[in-house]
Structures are given as C-alpha cells and as structure tokens.
Amino acid sequence: MNTFVPILYTGVVLGSIFAACSVGLALLYGTLRFLNLAHGGFLVIGGYVAWYVTSKLGMPFSVGFLIAGVVGMGVGLFTYIIILRPLLGIGSPRWDIATIIASVGMAIVIEASVLEIFGPRLKSLPAAVDGAFAVGFTVIRYNALFVGLLAIGILIMTNWYLKHTKNGIALRAVASDINTAYLMGIPGRKIFAVTVAISSALTTTAGVLLGSFYFLRPDSGQNPMMTAIVVVVFGGLGSIRGAIAAAYIIGFLQATVSVFFGVKWAMPALFAFMIIVLIFRPYGLYGKPDESRI
Known about the structure:
About 70% of the residues lie in helices and about 5% in strands. The protein has about 290 residues and is an all-alpha fold. The protein has a single domain, classed as ABC transporter involved in vitamin B12 uptake, BtuC (Orthogonal Bundle), CATH 1.10.3470. A hairpin with a 2-residue loop joins strand 1 and strand 2.
C-alpha cells in the first residue's frame, strides 16, 4: 500500500500530462511527416504565456490556459507559412532533413527569445486548485488531480474533433493516404495549415499543464520534448491512439522507477526503455512501415 498509491497517483497524472504533450507531436508527424524538434519551445511558450496572464495581468488560470491555446495557434500558422509551406514538394529525404534543421533553428530562437523577454529566473504558475488530502502516507494535491483531468479533457476533445468535424475527418484522410485525399478534392495545403495550428495549440496548452506542475525556465521544455518523442516512437510514429497508450505506460514506468530508485533514474530508465522498444518493435505499438508523402 505504501508504494501502490504513489505509483498509481503519479502514473495516472504523469501519463495524462505526457499524452497531452505528445498528441500534438504525433498529429504533426502523422499528417506532414514532420518531427518538430521545436516542440519543447512550444511547450515553454504556453507555460510563459499562462504565467504572464495569471501573474502579471491577474487573470484566472482558465483565461491563461485559453490564451495560451490561441497564441499556440498563431505560432503554428506562422511556422507553417514561414517555414513549412516553402518546403512542400521537395520530397523525402530532403523534406525530413530540411524540416528537422529548420525546427532546431526555431527551437534555438524560441529559447533565446524567452530568455531575453522573461529572464533566467525560475517562474511558477499559481495552482489552479488549492488543497490536498492524504491516502496513507501519500499526500495527493488537488491541483495535480485537476491537471490530470484537464489533460484527459484535452485528449477527449481532440478525439471528438478528429472524428466528428469536417476538418478533422479531412485531416485523418490526408494522414491515411495523401494521394487519395487529393483525388477526393480535399485541399491538402489547407489541411496542413490546420494541422500545424491545432498541433501547436495542443502543445502550448500542454505547456500550461507542465507549468502548473513544474518550474518554468527558458529551457524547461527539453526533457518533456524528449519524453514526448519517446512516447510517439513507442506508440508508433503518427499514431495518436498509440501515443496515448504509450504515454500511460511510460507514466507508470517513470512513477515506478522514481518510487523505488529515485527521480534521478526516471530519464535514464526512459531511454533504456526506448532502446529496448526499438530493438523488438521498431515501428512501435501501432506504427506501420513509412512511405514517401511530401
């Protein structure tokens, strides 16, 4: 009981946050075959926007959360128009190399900009919900439960959007078979723009969840980004269902390792796990062999 409750509590909360952080990355790769290495920067943008809205403007957490999503959409559209759209049509593998290099450059610019604007000091978001209760020797914070539930809400809304809206269905069609989607009259470039905007909004709102759980600093998105990449690879590149399943598996893995061996072993265990996955399931849980798309 002394270990079961903290593992269950931490695993569910971490798994929910990891899933929210990863679904945007999986969506982007599934549609454009774009592995966004500026993903961590987008998480940081969301956290700092929410911090500014709540701490400087005095607005509630919910307003900061919504504004972070709107800012994320804007950043995503900017990314598509300035960086991705000019590269469409160059073909793989040049597309893969060019977009990876571009996203690395974008990550550097984002980190430097955040450092210049907000400074190097650690910042933290105010708790959305105060208070805690104890289960045995484990103290469970209401804020952590709220963040976990909010992450689950993001996943449910994303699933609903993809399955029940016109743009969501078109997005899934493009992700499944881009050539057939073109023949059916689906405007591929419009769907690409929508995908990048939605993915960025999902990522910045996930950054708000991280910011309410961990301290904010200009490079605080790096570890969550690496975790998100492992989640997406384990789940199967481009598979949202796989990313969600993988997020909870990895959440419980890190919770178990942290309880028994200490938090410092959580990241090494994560990458050891990824190596094992790549050896035995190179396409992940739901992945399929890749093909040229762009």
